[in-house]
Design goal:
The structure is a homodimer. Chain A has a six-stranded antiparallel sheet with strand order 2-3-1-4-6-5. Chain A contains four helices and six strands; from the N terminus they run βαββαβαββα. The longest helix of chain A has 13 residues, at 67-79. Chain A has helices spanning 28-38, 67-79, 109-120, 144-154, and strands at residues 7-23, 46-48, 55-63, 87-100, 127-131, 134-140. At the A-B interface, β1, α1, β2, β3 and α3 of A face β1, α1, β2, β3 and α3 of B. β5 (127-131) of chain A pairs antiparallel with β2 (46-48) of chain B, so a sheet runs across the interface. Bound molecules: threonine (2 copies). The site of one threonine (THR) has 10 residues of chain A, from α1 and β3.
């Protein structure tokens, strides 16, 4: 089962923006991301968890160099009544660390081993997003190098050449 | 730019479980997912957004047929003091709809077009998770077929044969 994970990657210079308490109705995501697309800002992770009381939080990450442009784009949304009353937070001190693998979809233990490695290293996970072939977590930038190293060890990846670039 | 998205898929019978207000400290994710892995339950999406006041919400989806086993696994966590005080919610009436594309990473407009199609169809997005090649959303099962159809149209996918299977 070892070969389910074929690489681990890190994107060091990320920034996160969160819009907290936006209306959980059709059209809200469009409103936010059309402002971002209009400014040609590259979005990396987009995360929304299930909402409550008709409100939800949406976070996304951008290259750190695009944080101020992205903030300008969504701050204008804050003033428009559609998103009224939401709070905007951001953090420019984060990195994305991912494990990638083609056989992951049917291996329940991959997430467990990923979280085990990060927990043993006392690295706090700020955000999680997954697909069938990838688990990505957002961590404090100060933890990024160590997170990559412990994931390498957990999945015995030192044998693979292809895993230090930003995917 | 059309060819950035090469397919849209739907996983009809999903169920979502959320642990709300878990301690946002290293080890919490491990605690939850080691219980799941121990029962050999297949996890599909895992979503955690940034927390507040030292607490965070973690959601994950499983095949609807595995919901009761997954609930049993995490309910036992609820009784352990590590996760004390969190709330468990679930919904067995959800589906995952995704757009898949190899050129997506650098196309800011893909998320915008995805949300545009769903918004025009008045389909509410319950959860969002992304990777460089995929945007997945959780919707009410009643919206699943229409969501797949409007995404097909938005990206002119009817020309592609490969997109109705569950990825
Ligand atoms: C919160 C946001 O995702 C909203 N539910 C929408 O569909 O746009
Ligand atoms: C909430 C959970 O992800 C926690 N931050 C952890 O690292 O396990």
């Amino acid at each position: 089962k070892q070969q389910a994970v074929c690489g681990a990657t890190v994107t060091i210079d990320e920034a996160r923006i969160s819009l907290l308490g936006v209306p959980d109705v059709p059209g809200t995501s469009l409103h936010i991301f059309s402002l971002i697309a209009g400014r040609k800002i590259t979005v990396d992770m987009i995360v929304q968890n299930v909402g409550a009381d008709g409100r939800s939080d949406i976070s996304f990450t951008v290259p750190k160099s695009e944080l101020s442009a992205a903030l300008e784009a969504v701050e204008s949304a804050a003033k428009e009544k559609e998103l009224g009353g939401h709070e905007l937070t951001f953090d420019d001190n984060v990195s994305k660390v991912s494990v990638v693998g083609l056989g992951m979809a049917h291996q329940t233990g991959i997430a467990d081993r990923t979280f085990h490695a990060l927990s043993d290293a006392e690295i706090n996970i700020q955000m999680i997003t997954t697909s069938e072939i990838k688990i990505s977590v957002l961590v404090d930038r100060a933890d990024a190098e160590q997170a990559l190293r412990v994931l390498h060890n957990a999945f015995e990846l030192e044998k693979t050449p292809a895993d230090s670039a930003n995917l």
